[in-house]
Amino acid sequence: MPDGDLALLLARIQFAFTVSFHFIFPAFSIGLASYLAVLEGLWLKTGKSLYIDLYRYWLKIFAVAFAMGVVSGIVMSYQFGTNWSVFSDKAGPVIGPLMAYEVLTAFFLEAGFLGVMLFGMKKVGPRLHFAATCMVAIGTFISAFWILSVNSWMHTPTGFATNAEGQLVPAGSWLNIIFNPSFPYRLVHTVIAAYLTTALVVGAVGAWHLLKDRADPHARKMFSMAMWMAALVTPIQIYAGDEHGLNTLEHQPAKVMAMEGHYDSHPSGAPLILFGIPNPEEKRIDYAIEVPKLSSLILKHDLDAPLAGLDTIPDNREPPVSVVFWSFRVMVGLGFLMLALGLFSLFARFRGRLYDWPLLHRFALVMGPTGFIAVIAGWITTEVGRQPFTVYNVLMTRDSVAPLDAPAVASSLTAFVIVYFTVFGFGTWYLLKLMAKGAEPGEPEPANAPIRTAGHTGIAAVGGSGRSDQRPDRTEGAHGWT
Questions:
Q1: What's the whole-model pTM score?
Q2: Same domain, 194 and 80
Q3: Second label for 195, Cα 20 to 30 Å away, from 66, 285, 391, 399?
Q4: Residues 248 and 381 in one domain
Q5: pLDDT tens profile 344-388
Q6: Is there a single domain that holds both residue 459 and residue 424?
Q7: Which run of H or E residues covers position 384?
Q8: Are 29 and 69 in contact (CB under 8 A)?
Q9: Rounded CA separation 180/175 (Å)
Q10: Cβ proximity of 138 and 365 under 8 Å
């Protein structure tokens, strides 16, 4: 392989490696931040100590996951200036401001309230602390909004022009760039995926502790909440994924052709290939197991609708079929397993056996990491399916890489692999250690003594008796909230 091609391949592998590691943590923290807001809101509404116990339990896990997400995300920015400096120069006038908005809005919002969320419950009082938790949850969503807007624009670029220096620059309204054609579908699909990923982790942790103690009230509550999420949200995610697929067929047909394994066009109904082995050399799917015309029904809602194949795409613009074909099936297969788990939990709930059916608990435990696998498989499907472009049909990947030597990229890739597996391996081990220990009853009540600043009384005790099972009461007095 020529040195330039090898450098390009290594740069792509490095970016794929680092972004895959990074994506795991935001996918978890987006959902977990919202779950924490729900738990604290339920505690404020009901006064039940069970909810604040669970809040404090998951808050420790959130803090570690959030920190690893921040650290792994910093590396991504540097790669744009090292391995992909040409891409940054050409597309920077469009994507640069959007990424800056993510920092100025989402990251500052998260950073501003995260300290209050982690350490301020005894300092600011329960309602203001709940507001801080909500701000962090909203910040994670805003972060997803901007990042997915940038990434979606790279798939369906709109609202730009090319200047004399060959740069892609905004043309007209920024709304055309932000709300590009694929963005709404990708935002909904990705955020729901984050919620499901969190629900599966929470359900697995609850199942683990139920297998040890069926009477554990904390395990029962977290398992029940997670199973409701799996049962109700998974069908919505499947529908959102189908709508996203139809949008992709309209704007990136080659990606869908690779996902479906359609090397050949089908003028009178295309089959749905369930499994098979892509053969790029012969341009066919070997040992295909397929359902006649079902792909046309899914994609066009007509059994006899024609579907174009990769034989209509030039070879040099054809995405890597094998990777896209299999990653798509991993994502879809896991999605239907999530649906099966949700339906199983509804059946167990109807039978009154949600907390004493070991088969369900073991199923939920095994499904715990599948949310992460599914989001990575979906990300691979999306990004590899866009190849050979960084900006679809505008800027090719080979024209985006920096002029680096292969040994330099190989050295940095090796360093990333060693450091990432060491640091994040330890972080993951610590998260699993925290999850293995169950939530403890009777967590310390927030703010049980007045806080005095500059001689004035601030936040006093929550409630009158100090009992942890009481709903926090609020009385407005001359010295603030008590």
A1: 0.85
A2: yes
A3: 391
A4: yes
A5: 999 999 999 999 899 999 999 999 999 999 999 999 999 999 999
A6: no
A7: helix 370-386
A8: yes
A9: 8
A10: no
